Amino acid sequence: MPVFSDTTFFLLGQAGDQPPASGMVTMVGMFIFIFAFMYIFTIRPQRIKEKKHLEAVSKLKKGDNVLLESGIYGEVFSVEGDTINIKVADKVVIKVHQRGIRVILAGESAAEVDAKLGSK
Question: Domain span at residue 23?
Answer without folding.
Answer: 6-56
